[in-house]
């Protein structure tokens, strides 16, 4: 009679199935950042929420997600990534049920905060588990390719599914759709993923956790308020100043902490520094792009929610197609060249899209750019993720994974705030010169599309440039001092 296999043996045998489970959870996290966008008008009408409150339905998710990612990554390193992954998925599913049942704005916003905090636990844990399950370079490249492609597809699918679900089943369905996937992941994870060994139970860097979380939350809140209340409003200035003070304090604390939340020696690796800079710019470009594209289709072209969602299918298809060939491209061209090329392809698609008129035909003006954007976006997410975790020790896998997600989320918040301000300014200028509203809106969105392309081009230049000055020297870090306190790096 055959002996039952241990969890570790199953993990080796079923690791590709485990990857599907991890990718599904990662998909939910990225999806939820965008799926609500198209449902907002319907949601606001039923819950009697004004425009400013509606914007906080998005912000209430992004703030805890971006602010707690580094802490979530470090908790995974300390207590075990599988444990944190399952806890995060469980919290995410429960909060999704609560959001779908929301009968008031306060109820909904509280649920969104819990969703964001849960996502901050599961996202870095999922990426860290992938790096532990796949140790052979070629297999790891394929696995990270899948995870990177899922991140890109999730951004697109949010617009697609948001339109389909809202039209067919109402706004609560954009939250309830998370529940069956979450239950499936929670059920399968203990069987497919072996319990990993937690790191040493050293003291947790709570001063670092408080300052970085407070700093990131203050920064994202300041950027969100800047668009609504103006860059010189007292709240915007106060939150911006608090962000600078708290993030500066965080860097100082991390230089001398015995068990730092984010070992600054991580940034002495050019791959970590370059990969996170790229993910920061990718996040800004894609978030601004999809915000403008969704509003352009509904306000200018007068697409309903379903049609606006279905128009994203070609872009999603291009993403899936490029994900299948990315391992071969990474092997042939190298990570940096593939990432730079992908960013330039993405930029060419957004610039092409900027020529779309106020009476655009999808087949003539939008289909081609969508496919090009999908190819560039898919390649950039896969290569950026691969580069940012290259050479990171297992003991720092969680915090490195949290850093990638943090870079993408904060980049998205900053990119959206900047590009939305540029769009509004351009639209007002065109209106003041007598341009009709559809043309003025189209002109404003065109600048967003061009701006997204500019961010991608900057990313490509940074990737190709030889980083001669390490971040450690810019921050005044003594490599000998930090090297004694951080093991497994360099």
Descriptive labels:
single chain; mainly alpha; Growth Hormone, Chain: A; 490 residues; 0% strand
In short:
With 490 residues, the protein is mainly alpha-helical. It contains 20 helices and no strands.
Task: Explain what the structure shows.
The chain crosses the membrane at residues 16-41, 53-72, 84-107, 113-134, 146-169, 175-194, 206-226, 232-253, 273-297, 309-330, 337-356, 362-383, 403-424, 444-467. Its main location: membrane. This is DHA2 family efflux MFS transporter permease subunit. It is found in: Cell membrane. Residues 18-471 form the Major facilitator superfamily (MFS) profile domain. The structure is a single chain. With 490 residues, the chain is mainly α. It has 2 domains: 7-205 and 257-485, Up-down Bundle (Growth Hormone, Chain: A), CATH 1.20.1250.20; 206-256. 80% of the residues lie in helices and 0% in strands. The protein has 20 helices and no strands. It has helices at residues 7-13, 15-32, 36-47, 51-79, 81-100, 105-133, 137-169, 173-176, 178-192, 206-229, 234-256, 270-300, 305-310, 313-333, 335-353, 362-388, 397-432, 437-464, 471-474, 479-485. Helix 2 (15-32) packs across helix 7 (137-169), helix 10 runs antiparallel to helix 11 and helix 15 packs antiparallel against helix 16. The longest helix has 36 residues, at 397-432. The model is unreliable at 466-490 (pLDDT under 50).
């Amino acid at each position: 009679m055959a002996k039952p296999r241990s969890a570790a043996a199953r993990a080796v045998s079923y690791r590709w199935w485990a990857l599907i489970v991890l990718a599904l959870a990662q998909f939910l996290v990225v999806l939820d950042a965008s799926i609500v966008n198209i449902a907002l008008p319907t949601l606001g009408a039923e819950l009697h929420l004004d425009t400013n409150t509606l914007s906080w339905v998005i912000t209430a998710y992004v703030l805890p997600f971006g602010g707690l990612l580094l802490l979530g990554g470090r908790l995974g390193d300390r207590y075990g990534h599988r444990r944190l992954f399952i806890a995060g998925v469980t919290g995410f599913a429960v909060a999704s049920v609560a959001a779908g049942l929301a009968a008031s704005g306060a109820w909904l916003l509280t649920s969104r905060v819990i969703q964001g905090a849960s996502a901050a636990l599961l996202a870095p844990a999922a990426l860290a588990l992938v790096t532990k399950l796949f140790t052979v370079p070629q297999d790891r490249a394929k696995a990270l390719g899948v995870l990177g492609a899922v991140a890109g597809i999730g951004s697109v699918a949010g617009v697609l599914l948001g339109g389909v679900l809202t039209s067919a089943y109402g706004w609560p369905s954009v939250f309830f759709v998370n529940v069956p996937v979450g239950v499936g992941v929670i059920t399968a994870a203990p069987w497919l993923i072996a319990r990993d060994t937690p790191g040493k139970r050293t003291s947790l860097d709570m001063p670092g956790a408080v300052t970085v979380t407070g700093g990131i939350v203050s920064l994202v809140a300041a950027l969100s308020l800047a668009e609504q209340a103006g860059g010189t409003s007292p709240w915007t200035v106060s939150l911006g100043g608090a962000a600078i003070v708290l993030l500066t304090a965080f860097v100082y604390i991390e230089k001398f902490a015995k068990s730092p939340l984010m070992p600054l020696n991580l940034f002495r690796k050019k791959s970590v520094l370059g990969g996170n800079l790229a993910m920061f710019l990718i996040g800004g470009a894609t978030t601004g792009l999809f915000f403008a594209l969704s509003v352009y289709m509904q306000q200018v072209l007068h697409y309903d929610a379903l049609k606006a969602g279905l128009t994203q299918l070609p872009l999603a298809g291009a993403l899936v197609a490029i994900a299948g060939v990315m391992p071969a491209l990474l092997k042939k061209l190298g990570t940096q060249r593939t990432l730079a090329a992908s960013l330039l392809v993405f930029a060419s698609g957004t610039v092409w899209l900027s020529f779309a008129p106020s009476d655009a035909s999808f087949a003539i003006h939008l289909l081609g750019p969508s496919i090009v954007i999908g190819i560039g976006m898919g390649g950039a997410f896969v290569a950026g993720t691969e580069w940012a975790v290259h050479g990171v020790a297992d003991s720092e896998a969680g915090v490195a994974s949290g850093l990638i997600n943090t870079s993408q989320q904060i980049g998205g918040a900053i990119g959206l705030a900047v590009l939305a301000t540029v769009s509004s300014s351009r639209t007002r200028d065109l209106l003041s010169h007598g341009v009709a509203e559809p043309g003025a809106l189209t002109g404003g969105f065109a600048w967003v599309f061009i701006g997204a392309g500019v961010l991608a081009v900057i990313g490509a230049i940074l990737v190709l440039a030889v980083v001669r000055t390490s971040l450690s020297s810019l921050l005044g870090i003594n490599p000998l001092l930090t090297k004694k306190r951080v093991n497994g790096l360099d």
